[in-house]
Amino acid sequence: MAPATQFELAQPPNDAVSSLSYAPQNSTRLLVSSWDKNVYLYDTHSGTEEAQGTRISTFEHRAPVLDVCFGATDNEAYSACLDWQAYKIDLETGEKTSIAKHSAPVRCVVYSPEQSLLITASWDQTLQIHNTKDPSAPNLTISLPGKPHALSASPSKLVVAMTARLVHIYDLTPIPALFSASSPPEIKPWQQRESSLKFLTRAVSCMPNDAGYA
């Protein structure tokens, strides 16, 4: 009989899973965010035959966590929370720092390694862009025409899927220079589209070669 191609992780979350993210360098490290107000870090290739995978750490939040992603290294993560904030998590020490504050729940968070930017999308209909090279710099804010429900970044582009089947694409390349401007100009979409899908887009993913998204 062929070996099993799937297995259930030991010590799974206590409520619905909201997001998954694999580490950029070590493909066995998996982050899981959940409605049980926690972010979990797993090693998917350890454990026993009866309980595969090992929960390495748990990072508690004040409210359900809607999204999670890795940062520049396998020991850095970012979370989007229902308490209107996004957090940076040191996966080694467990230290958690607020890096973005919105006026409604934060639905999505994505890190751009090429631009060293952290982008959060909130149901207050804004994006906030955080300069990870200079955490003391004020975040840049982009107003959106609808509530965001999905977010993804390629090496040079950011795709935002919103209510009313709206999709905005932003060029990330010039944004790092705006943090040093005395009065940054308004950031406008590189492209504005309407989804060809009949219903709301809840997931979007950019191609790593910058050719498009799905």
TrEMBL record:
InterPro entries, A to Z = WD40/YVTN_repeat-like_dom_sf, WD40_repeat_dom_sf, WD40_rpt
Lineage, top-rank taxon, reads Eukaryota
Kindly state which keywords UniProt assigns to this record, in alphabetical order.
Repeat, WD repeat
Which positions does the entry assign to WD repeats? 99-129
Gene3D superfamilies for this protein: YVTN repeat-like/Quinoprotein amine dehydrogenase
Protein name, please? Uncharacterized protein
Organism annotation: Verticillium longisporum (Verticillium dahliae var. longisporum)
